[in-house]
């Protein structure tokens, strides 16, 4: 066989593999509706209930990624800074709650001692 014939065979085999492989995978891959129908009833119900919440969480995450990418810093650094800020806010609110609870306990103690 000539060299040109070998090249054409290799080119044909490459096209079949590069085009036919993904086309075959796409043809046997089930659609989202088919997968959903295979769920049992409990999973279908839970999927329908949590679908909107998960979509909203994903949208929030994408928006945060967009916000972080606008910064001059790395996305990871911006994400860490936002997480640190959120954690400090949680800590301050928790300490404020503890302080309010302590003040309330002191007032209750004063009331009890004052009544006796």
Helices and strands, with pairings:
Layout (H helix, E strand, L loop, with lengths): L2 H26 L3 H7 L2 H30 L4 H41 L1
Helix pairs in contact: 3-4
GO cellular component, one term: mitochondrial inner membrane
GO biological process, one term: mitochondrial respiratory chain complex III assembly
Main location: mitochondrion
Name the beta content range.
Answer: under 5%
The ordered string of helix (H) and strand (E) elements is: HHHH
- Dominant shape: elongated
Rg over alpha carbons: 31 Å
Runs in which pLDDT lies below 50 for 5 or more consecutive residues are none
Membrane topology: Single-pass membrane protein
Family: Belongs to the CBP4 family.
Subcellular location: Mitochondrion inner membrane
Organism: Aspergillus wentii DTO 134E9
Structural notes for this entry:
- By secondary structure, the protein is mainly α.
- It folds into 3 domains: 1-30; 41-70; 73-115.
- Helix content is 90%, strand content 0%.
- It has 4 helices and no strands.
- It has helices spanning 3-28, 32-38, 41-70, 75-115.
- Helix 3 (41-70) packs across helix 4 (75-115).
- Residues 82-116 are annotated as: Disordered.
